[in-house]
Specification:
The chain has one domain. With 355 residues, the chain is mainly alpha-helical. The chain is globular and about 55 Å long. 74% of the residues lie in helices and 0% in strands. It has 17 helices and no strands.
Length: 355
Amino acid sequence: MVPYIVIFLLSSLFLTLSYPKIFRIPLKFLVFLFLLIFIGLRYQVGADWDSYKKIYEFISQNGIDALFYTDPGYGLINLVSSYLGGDIFFVNLISGFIFLIGLFYFVSKLPYPSLTIAIANSYLVFIVAMGYTRQSIAIGILMISYALYINKKYIPSLILPFIAVFFHKSALFGIFIVAFSMVLSYKTRLNLKYYFALLIIFIGLISISYFFFFKPYQEYFITTYILGNMESKGAYPRLLLNAIAGLLVISDFVKEPKTKDVIIFKTMSFFSLFFIFLIPLLGSTTIDRLNLYLYPLQCYAYSFFVYNIKNKSSKFLFYYTIMCLYFLVLVIWLLFAVHRKAWIPYKNILLEALM
């Protein structure tokens, strides 16, 4: 577990220290590169490593006919990798690159990049991006969508979740988050006739996405995740982390610039609380997977919470307290998680080549 702790501390430390402006972009690039190598060149790390390896082998043997053997976007990455002879490592590099582009773009719109990267590292980077590869790509794309929404670029923000669905069907939830937020944003700007027209269009888009992407797999989903009583042991702690962030946003402890449209985080806050009551209906595994799309809410809530503290001593205290708590979240997962052995020991193809 030492490599995870070292990368966590180094990536946060690099971004925490004060540097002349000329060095800031190169240092961010260096952290990005460290994380990309750590994620993309991992070897036999992650609970689904063998499953992803089989997907790659099947697509490389059957070519374009096997594109829909998995989610088509991820299948395309595998197909390109097989043509280039890149093996599963090229697939993981491209997947990690898309995820990190989304993460760093999202973080760039928030105060305190070091804090937000630490929050993301504790689970989103080290566990999700290195275990749930397809969903991590979808999350990366959705983080770009969230960042665009903040800056009132609504149309690109709505288009991106549709792209994310090509990498993981559960990203259909991301379409709903953005569409519902847009309806709320436009509520006071449009007369009733146009408002309802917009609402009908959004419902239509979500319905089409459901029937095209999700309905063919509905029976498998219900049988495996709901009726099969598949359980996610860590669902409740992860739901709690999002719920606390959601409460901060809803209760107005988090103040953001008035030039930004942050309704999307109000929407995410509502779902962070609502999900707790949905577990008996949909099962802990289903809710846990959907909850991952709300994880950026923690980055947003805590970074702006610290930003709004006026007293320097209090700001310093909360900043490092939050960072230490998320470091603790990572350590607890590495020590006690059910699937921890799939991540420990950490192996990297570069290190394997040198040994």
